[in-house]
Amino acid sequence: MTDEQNQNHEEPVIRDKRRIDPETGEVRQPAADGAPEEGAPEAGGSNGTGAEASDSFDDEAELTVDDILNAANAEVQDPSEEHLADLKRVTAEYANYRKRTEANREVERERAVGAAVAVLLPVLDDLDRAEKHGDLEGDSAFATIAAKLRGAVEKLGLTAFGEVGEPFDPQRHEAIFQQPSADVEVDTVADVVETGYTLGGVQLRAAKVVVTTPSA
């Protein structure tokens, strides 16, 4: 009786269902249809049916957590040339994206500040006219307010341009009147009627000037 029980008792079969070989890091190919795996009972045997064999094949086709971890670890230790090229490409694209984002952010900032400062340009023009008439001399309240306003817009990046005696630049100056003179050899700003302003790299307004031109 004991001998009969020993004959019917089978040794447990251990199957390695990992799709990635932990030693080589390569993907294992599934066995051909109908071919039994190593250590697996043959189809039609006393301990299995065709349906059980099919279920076993489906289970083996599933990736396990160990498969994923082993594959990731193998790739980190010995990355392929394809993955290295992908990493360089992604790194370059991210660097370009950051540069474009920072440049666009600066442009939008200058545009927003410029729109706000442009509203104050007529006020600054009035201060320039008052200064020419001598209304900003001394320590009067008017002079103090003018100094604070000019200082505030300068902190925002507003820069005035247009000086008497500088060469005429059609990109920065708007000539409202021309007068010939034998004292100049090139077109020269003789008087500034309205100051020009820039904000960062953006010109908010050209300077309106009187130009002295060389006499023929």
Give structural attributes:
single chain; 45% helix; alpha+beta; 3-stranded antiparallel sheet; 216 residues; 6 helices
Describe the structure.
The protein has a three-stranded antiparallel beta sheet with strand order 1-4-5. It has a three-stranded mixed beta sheet with strand order 2-6-3, with no helix packed on it. It is elongated, with a radius of gyration of 42 Å. The termini are far apart. Residues 38-49 have low confidence and may be disordered. The protein has 216 residues and is an alpha+beta fold. Helices cover 45% and strands 17% of the residues.
Q: Class by helix and strand content?
A: alpha+beta
> In percent, how helical is the residue content?
40-55%
Mean pLDDT across every amino acid position = 78
Biggest sheet details: 3 strands, antiparallel
Share in β-strands: 15-25%
Kindly, what is the distance between the CA atoms of the first and last residues, rounded to a whole number of angstroms? 135 Å
How many strand units? 6
Strand order of the largest sheet: 1-4-5
The arrangement of helices and strands along the chain is HHHHHHEEEEEE
Coarse shape: elongated
Low-confidence stretches: 38-49
Sum this structure up briefly.
With 216 residues, this protein is an alpha+beta fold. It has 6 helices and 6 strands.
